[in-house]
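Quick note —
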Amino acid sequence: MWQGIEVWGNRDLPQYPESNQGVVELKNGATIENARCAITTCQKDAEGNILWAYTGGIIHAKDAHFINNRKAIEFLSYHNILPNGREIDNSSYFNNCNFETNAQLSDPGTLPETFVSLNDVKGVKFLGCTFQNIAPTGVYSTIHRGNGITSIDANYEVKPLCLNPYIYPCSEYQPNTFQNLYYGIYASNTNPAITLTISVNNFDNNHRSIFLKSINNATITKNNFDIGATIWNINDQTNEREACDVFNRSYSYGVYLKECSGYKVE
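Predicted structure written out below.
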């Protein structure tokens, strides 16, 4: 597997104008595959250590494909702060993109990790994307299917894409779809004030669709859940215990909120 793309930024500059930062633009069916990390928004040294002064890179992805990567997208700590001191949303977005694992990764010793990871960023948007593991049965056990989105202290939106933006209010949407994953969305915070929005999405046959920890005022609305099967006898598979009982059953679920308050779930 190759290392993927590094889009270098400058943590001390805003993303406006975009010439302040490196930009990767993917469109018209652009595909990145077989990478350890398809795109990371920073620079790393020869040993893979993060050079934190170079975060802030921008990703614009529309109608793009990320296929059989250990991780597709990595956002690392960056705040888009204007000269007047006001923080605005990250300029990065993903519209109608396909994140997919459909076979064993090209390095057999490597397992899918997560399609997207976000650490301490604000406002990245995922609109009308697909996150799925459709590798043949037996290639990956349930706990090794990988996650859709994994985040720490990140604010972002997981919402539908309006198919006709010239009509208001929009009447036709394309939801995000999370399918056959270990976790659809796994989000945890050290700062509960950082919130997120997960609305009008489809979660199909994931072991656990949405897990939030220490996140206040989250919005989880109008999602559809088709919950995967519970794992039995998981002693040798995982140390996860957020939703396990004394009989060693790892329950599947739609939404699990731990140490959260002020949320809207409907």
